[in-house]
Amino acid sequence: MAYWLLKTEPSTWSWEDQTTKGVTAWDGVRNYQASNNMKTMKVGDLCFFYHSVNERRIVGIVEVIKEYYPDHTDPTGRFGMVDVKYVCPFKTPVILEIIKADPRLKHLAIVKQSRLSVVPIDPQSWEIICQYGGVSIS
To answer: Which residues contact 86 (CB under 8 A, 6 or more apart)?
Structure first.
């Protein structure tokens, strides 16, 4: 199993939307590096659900339930998407400043490449962030 962080603008797709729908296609990714990260995702991988823009915080966890396939919203046919399902909310949302302040997390792409929308999370960092969020899922 691998771990990831998926960014979304809450005005486009929010945690509340994910909670209500349960399962959704994670479409609209138009960055090659983020798309390549999605290509390596496997069914059962877990992902932090991150609200970007003004909130900049992890609010919950979703699970990959369908591996990379063509994105119907991409007229060029170059990009794909995965399907994810709701797993659980964070008891305490983890803001980006907390992640940046923890020296154990300074290597994460969310810190180094803040605009990248799909980034890997190593198992140790996953556990640390889950602790901050008040959940225990691995």
So the answer is: 18, 19, 21, 22, 23, 60, 62
In this structure, are residues 84 and 63 in contact, taking their beta carbons and an 8 Å threshold?
Answer: yes
What residues contact residue 96 under an 8 Å CB cut-off, 6+ apart? 56, 57, 110, 114
Q: What is the pLDDT of residues 4-40, one digit of tens each?
A: 999 999 999 999 999 999 999 999 999 999 999 999 9
pLDDT tens digits along 52-97: 988 999 999 999 999 999 999 999 999 999 999 999 999 999 999 9
Which domains, ranges and CATH numbers included, belong to the chain?
Answer: 3-133 (3.10.590.10)
Instruction: Please enumerate in sequence order all residues whose Cβ is within 8 A of that of 136, keeping only pairs 6 or more positions apart, or say none.
Output: 130
Copy the structure tokens of residue 52.
């970007």
